[in-house]
Amino acid sequence: MGDKFFVNEGLKYLFLLLWLGANVAYWVVTFLVYEQGPQYFYVRRITGVGLSIAKASGAALNLNSMLILLPVCRNLISFFRGSCATNTLCRRSVRRQLDKNLTFHKTVAYMIVIWTIVHVVAHAFNFRNLFNHQRCVMTGNQEMCDQYGFDNIDRKFTFFPNDNWLNPLREVPALPGGLSLIVQGLIPIAGWTGAVLTIALIVMFSSATEFIRRSYFETFWITHHLFIVYYAMILGHGAGGIIRSQTNLDGHNIDACITKPDLWGVFAECDFPVFKDGAAASYKWVLGPMILYIIERSIRVWRSCQQVTLTKVVKHPSKVIELQMKKKGFKMEAGQYIFLKCPSVSHVQWHPFTLTSAPEEDHFSVHIRVVGDWTSGLAKAMGADRPEQQDQDSLPRVAVDGPFGTASIDIFKYQAAICVGAGIGVTPFASILKSIWLKSVNNSASLKLKKVYFFWICPDTNAFEWFSTLLDSIDTHFTEMGQPDFLKYFIYLSRGWSNTQAKNIYLQEEQEIDAITGLRQKTHYGRPKWDSNFKMVAAENPGTSVGVFFCGPKALSSVLHENSNKFTSITPDGAKFFYNKENF
């Protein structure tokens, strides 16, 4: 694919390489400090290389524990996205990386799990060596010391004056088998805090799978808030300072003193080595992001407490309900999304929905497909299961957080755009197309966007009803304005027609109006042939940057992403396709 690949992927992989490079570089630097630093010479004699591996992995954990909070600060992401959009030096490709915030959050989570495994395993070996050293010193058994590889110098470490210890394990509890080792490992602050944060991480990670998120959202939501425990334990993990370093390297130079036959004796030429506790460092990494996240959550709580007025509930075919709302001070852009909560359905569940209204309207709205427990409960609370329209006073209270920016708001930055919606994934384009229409009706400033190719793939015939009126109005408007080619829409019915409907469709094939949608442009049956569609758009838009915007399932996203790379031209007179996907 050559240079074309980097049009869509170059900056993403550059960013990933920088992040991976930072992980590797920080790990290596920390490893070398503990593996070669003279201040850790004596502790290395007890623990071996496990100390350096554990501390290096812990350093990498601090780095990633700092980064993982930032992508879920949605207000921060929206702020940077808005600032970036008004900055001419900030390219579209830079803004597009902000839309991958949740993908990066998940990627960092995998890295945290990897470093945690390395850190825990390395410390398991460290504690085994510390425990064996403790037994060697406390029992004075020469055979045992030889078996564990400790010589005469190593056996002196526990008996330094003035509590100048090096091995944090001071006693040998009389417990059977390996239980003594486990207890000794958990007694220090670093031991029990490490165990708690590891358990919290395991629960968070295992309950964040897609199956749990979709089927048991409240379980995911509750367990994911164990991040509070995780960060509290991180802050306390290094407070014990059990890895000690030597402070008097001038009076006790390692290279000179280690060869003295009367090392640390009464008439020795070298001073006793003096050790100090290790200093906690995690707070330097995570305190800043924690403060940012607290501010983020405070803003979201404040927003969610503001009054929202439900002005209208509309029942559409295909189990779709529309909520029209008003909220004081609410300002939106086309293509943005909100989080919605209905306390009468669930006090903890917030769900993201793309706004289907335009900024030019006096209300904001969302279209919700009823597919699961929460949406079914919401529909019932809104009276969608009853034939009569509910009074406004009888409607339940809802809370709204947002709006937040997404990839779709960048559509006005391109000269041409391909918009692809699958099923209810059409919602962001309802807002965008409506906004384009109203801007044109109100004679707003000229749009950079000159052509829109809209693809909508639906599973059944009923799904077309609620959106076809808007499409017809937009199509009619631009035709009357002398721009009949501004909007080209391609509606695909992937399944759901009966033999009778197929017969009627065939008999009305020559009619000007489509038999299914009532629109002038005919409905296609089956699935789009994306190769042909991308070739058509490329041929009609030479030398143009074409934005590809998608909302729908992952499988189709991969196909569109692949075709965007495949049909991008690196020549000046060729079309360049920039892929953008909705992420909530």
Task: Please tag this protein with its features.
alpha/beta; 3-stranded antiparallel β-sheet
How does this model look, in words?
With 584 residues, this protein is an alpha/beta fold. It is 47% helix and 14% strand. The chain has 20 helices and 14 strands. It has helices spanning 5-36, 41-47, 50-67, 74-85, 92-98, 101-139, 142-148, 179-186, 189-206, 210-215, 217-224, 227-237, 254-257, 282-304, 373-381, 427-441, 465-480, 499-507, 530-540, 554-566, and strands at 245-246, 275-276, 308-316, 320-327, 337-341, 351-354, 364-369, 399-404, 416-422, 451-458, 487-493, 524-525, 545-551, 576-581. The chain has a six-stranded parallel beta sheet with strand order 12-11-10-9-13-14, sandwiched between helices. Strands 3-4-7 form a three-stranded antiparallel beta sheet, with no helix packed on it. A hairpin with a 3-residue loop joins strand 3 and strand 4 (320-327). Helix 3 (50-67) packs antiparallel against helix 6 (101-139), helix 4 (74-85) runs antiparallel to helix 5 and helix 9 packs antiparallel against helix 12 (227-237). The longest helix has 39 residues, at 101-139. It is elongated. The two termini are 30 Å apart. The mean pLDDT is 79.
